[in-house]
UniProtKB/TrEMBL annotation:
InterPro entries found in the cross-reference section: Calcineurin-like_PHP, EF-hand-dom_pair, EF_Hand_1_Ca_BS, EF_hand_dom, IQ_motif_EF-hand-BS, Metallo-depent_PP-like, PPP_dom, PPP_phosphatase
One function term, GO molecular function aspect: protein serine/threonine phosphatase activity
Cofactors: Mn(2+)
Keyword Phosphoprotein belongs to the record: no
Catalytic reaction list: O-phospho-L-seryl-[protein] + H2O = L-seryl-[protein] + phosphate; O-phospho-L-threonyl-[protein] + H2O = L-threonyl-[protein] + phosphate
Family to which this protein belongs: Belongs to the PPP phosphatase family.
Annotated organism of origin: Corythaeola cristata (Great blue turaco)
Keywords: Calcium, Hydrolase, Manganese, Metal-binding, Protein phosphatase, Repeat, Sensory transduction, Vision
Residue segments, region Disordered: 308-346
Name listed for the protein in its UniProt record: Serine/threonine-protein phosphatase
EC number: 3.1.3.16
Function statement: May play a role in phototransduction. May dephosphorylate photoactivated rhodopsin. May function as a calcium sensing regulator of ionic currents, energy production or synaptic transmission.
GO biological process: detection of stimulus involved in sensory perception; negative regulation of MAPK cascade; visual perception
Domain EF-hand span(s) in chain numbering: 548-583, 632-667, 672-707
Length: 708
């Protein structure tokens, strides 16, 4: 009996360890794909900026197209914005049965809104614009760093990313209580994107902010940014919800976002910021920044055309200084910036595409030489060396430093190693180590730091000797059951008390199954069901990623297949896949879920890639290379689509679509034929109205997942 008990115990421990290993692998897949997408966003924006500076269109028509494409929106002056978003002229029809707002707001208004949103009702555009107008007026009066004291309330509750998941916000209020004079809240950014109810979350938070201005505090996150919203769904969702007034609401929200405070201090001892810090974080400078200048942290304003020769590019931390107007040469150690040749005519598509690719590559190489970096050694860079690229004049240097301060606190992540280096995974901000945390806390006499920005399996995580606390409040972020949400409560003693939850009913049922199981086997089976569901979703996303890089994978596999047998070892398969995708995943461990086992340990890679293609292909008459490009760049394409679609109608003309594909063929490193694009256009225009609806485009290729 004793031996049997030991055997059962040993089996169970091994089984639980394997489940934990599978959970961690699944988590790595989700996180790697998410961060690679954020990196693509910044790379894409750098490409936009480069073309705006270097591209010489051959006609005024092309020049207008490119200008519309890369300028996301004009900055409205105060009076113009008020006139454009005039809510008083809007009439609310008698048939409207939703909630109504009157100002100043009262607690009853907030309660009515919560009940209405639970019943899936919407707030009329007139009230939304009125609310945004009042919120903007209030935010303009606030400092960059909000100050909260536990002396005036029993406790302060800090919530992390919500990402449009209204159910999580409802559950927080249910468990913790609504904001009130005795219950303060700090919402730490990333209210929107990804989830389907971003606007509702903004309405609820802004309503409580106006009712309890001393008890409710909002920090800006990296997703309170117009360029990010274009990519991650908020803009598209808002326009789909309100096609008549959506553009006005979007413009007003864009302006409200840039007025959100950047940080919060509790009792002068606990610093709350969305992302993190760097070795150059300066709270005194953050206090003085004119924060509303930064509508998007991913966009930098350029110098006027008259100062073109000394123009400073302030996008994504990369700056370049050319010879000054007086003809003075740059530093002798720097090679001159390559000047692109005159652009060939758009009539010769192949020649034009090659020209764009060549000039882009020349510019990238010049930037690398300017900052003394090589493509093969990015890890050895310190963060400071990447943001101090060249000597700037006074105003530009000040603006660059301010931009860097905001980028750091919105985009950075902690790391276990010492030091501070470029965040190459996200593509923005930095990684900061325990020594950097210690230095900033000592400099400003702080006890610890609370940040969000990263999804954690348990909803929270301590690091840096419990001096950094990550709080993430969007449960089931990647998939139902993938993670818990959490919030933290702080009393006068400033001891953090964590509360965890899972909002989705299905996930809650799975968790209760585990809790109610009275024997280990039942607990293990409950965990298995939960992990299997999340794991299936993760591997589906990973297979899409593999298919999107089919051409590059074939080239990598052939490098190991010297005799052209069409077969490689499974070990070489794992090495080749990582060399192409750069996701940092344990491919050997993931192999059983991606590759069928073989007796001799060899893989027929062409048939394996064909199997991947069969899972993804839905339009057989479109050339396979074009389909692969769409999968690999679908997020980029949607961002481009939203930028071209200036009126946010969800439609662009055939001509604009055709020009977009030809222009960005260089960015996607593939020659696209006119026949391929024409086939694509005919496939998408289902109603034959001469315009392209991007949602129909995505649906045609099964890129929009069906709602559960």
């Amino acid at each position: 009996a004793f031996k049997a008990a030991v055997l059962i115990q040993r089996w169970y421990r091994r089984y639980v360890a394997r489940l934990e290993m599978r959970r961690r692998c699944t988590w790595r897949i989700f996180q790697s794909i998410e961060y690679a997408c954020e990196q693509d966003q910044i790379k894409l924006h750098n490409f936009f900026s480069y073309l705006m500076d270097q591209f010489t269109p051959s006609s005024s028509k092309e020049r207008d197209f490119i200008s519309r494409m890369f300028v996301s929106g004009e900055s409205f002056k105060e009076a113009e914005l008020e006139k454009y978003c005039d809510y008083e002229s809007m009439e609310v029809p008698d048939s409207y049965t939703g909630p109504r707002l009157s100002f100043p707001l009262l607690p009853d208004h907030a309660t009515a809104l919560l009940e209405a949103f639970k019943q899936k009702q919407q707030l009329h555009a007139r009230y939304v614009l009125n609310l945004l107008h009042e919120t903007r007026k209030h935010l303009k009066q606030l400092p960059n760093i909000s100050h909260v004291s536990t002396c005036y309330s029993e406790e302060v509750t800090v919530c992390g990313d919500l990402h449009g998941q209204l159910d999580d916000l409802f559950l927080i209020f249910y468990k913790n209580g609504l904001p009130s004079p005795s219950k303060s809240y700090v919402f730490n950014g990333d209210f929107v994107d990804r989830g389907k109810q971003s606007l509702e979350i903004l309405i609820v938070l802004f309503t409580f902010l106006l009712i309890y201005p001393k008890e409710v505090h909002l920090n800006r996150g990296n997703h309170e940014d117009h360029m990010v919203n274009l990519r991650y769904g908020f803009c598209a969702g808002l326009m789909a919800m309100s096609r008549v007034h959506g553009k006005k609401i979007l413009k007003m929200i864009q302006n409200v976002f840039c007025w959100l405070p950047l940080a919060t201090l509790i009792d002068q001892k606990v610093l709350i910021i969305h992302g993190g810090i760097s070795d150059t974080t300066d709270l005194d400078m953050l206090e003085k920044i004119q924060r509303n200048k930064f509508i998007s942290v991913l966009r930098g304003k350029k110098r006027k055309e008259s100062n073109r020769n000394v123009e400073i590019q302030e996008i994504n931390g990369e700056s370049k200084a050319e010879a000054d107007p007086a003809g003075n040469e740059a530093a002798p150690s720097l090679s001159p910036q390559p000047q692109p040749a005159q652009a060939p005519s758009m009539a010769n598509r192949l020649e034009f595409s090659r020209w764009v690719r060549q000039t882009v590559q020349e510019q990238i190489e010049w930037c690398r030489r300017l900052v003394d970096i090589s493509e093969s050694e990015p890890e050895e860079l310190t963060y400071s060396s990447m943001v101090s690229l060249t000597d700037l004049d006074g105003p530009c240097q000040t603006r660059q430093e301010e931009w860097k301060q905001i980028l750091d606190i919105l985009w950075s992540d902690p790391m276990p190693q010492e030091g501070c280096r470029v965040n190459t995974v996200r593509g923005g901000g930095c990684y900061f180590g325990p020594d950097v945390t210690r230095m900033i806390l000592e400099k400003y006499n702080l006890q610890f730091l609370i940040r969000s920005h990263e999804c954690k399996h348990e909803g929270y995580e301590f690091c840096h000797n419990r001096k950094v606390l990550t709080i993430f409040s969007a449960s089931n972020y990647y998939e139902i059951g993938s993670n818990r949400g959490a919030y933290v409560k702080l009393g006068p003693d400033l001891v953090p008390h964590i509360v965890q939850y899972q909002a989705n009913k299905t996930a809650h049922t799975l968790t209760m199954t585990q809790r109610q199981a009275k024997i280990p086997k039942g607990k293990a089976l409950g965990a298995l069901r939960k992990i299997s569901r999340v794991e299936e979703s993760a591997f589906r996303a990973l297979r899409e990623k593999l298919f999107a890089h089919t051409s590059a994978l074939i080239s990598a596999f052939k490098a190991y297949d010297k005799d052209n047998t069409g077969r490689i070892t499974l070990s070489n398969w794992a090495t080749a896949v990582e060399s192409v995708l750069h996701l940092g995943l344990p491919w050997r461990m993931l192999r059983p879920q991606l590759v069928r086992s073989t007796a001799d340990g060899m893989l027929e890679y062409k048939s394996w890639l064909d199997d991947l293609a069969m899972e993804q292909r839905s339009q057989e008459h479109i050339q396979s290379s074009l389909l692969e490009v769409i999968y690999r760049n679908r997020s980029n394409l949607e961002t481009i689509f939203r930028i071209i679609d200036r009126d946010h109608s969800g439609l662009i003309s055939f001509e604009e679509f055709h020009q977009t594909w030809k222009l960005f063929s260089s960015h996607m490193n593939i020659e696209l034929t006119d026949d391929g694009i024409n086939d694509l256009v005919r496939s998408i225009d289902f109603n034959k109205d001469g315009n392209i609806d991007f949602n129909e485009f995505l649906e045609a290729f099964r890129l929009v997942k069906q709602s559960q």
